[in-house]
Amino acid sequence: MTTSIASDGQWPVPVAENAAGRETRISVHAKPSGRRSPLRRILDLVDDAVLLLLIVLLFPLVILLVGMPVALLVRLLVEIAQRL
């Protein structure tokens, strides 16, 4: 059974039935949940905060790791140019 607009508020997906007449796992998982648990929202916020903190703390380290060799190479080239 397929419908383009669901009248009962569920996703418009084909509902497959097995020999016993019950919905299969695919049709059960296709239904929208509607709400997320408050604990899940809090965990998502904590996860985002930790990721942002890691990015903020690692950004200067990346600048140092990339910038230091470049600065040393430029200094070496300036020293070599001065001796010529």
Radius of gyration: 29 Å
Structural class: mainly alpha
- The percentage of residues in β strands lies in under 5%
User: Globular, elongated, flat, extended or rod-shaped: what is the shape?
Assistant: rod-shaped
- Listing every helix as H and every strand as E from the N terminus to the C terminus, the arrangement reads HH
Main sheet: strands, sense, barrel: none
DSSP helix count? Answer: 2
Show unreliable segments: none
Relative helix content: 55-70%
Tally of distinct domains: 2
Measure the end-to-end span: 85 Å
Average pLDDT taken over every residue: 78
Number of strands: 0
Question: Would you mind describing this structure in some detail?
Answer:
The chain is mainly α and 84 residues long. The chain has two domains: 1-34, no CATH class; 36-83. Helix content is 61%, strand content 0%. The longest helix has 46 residues, at 38-83.
Key attributes of the depicted protein:
84 residues; mainly alpha; 2 domains; 2 helices; 61% helix; 0% strand
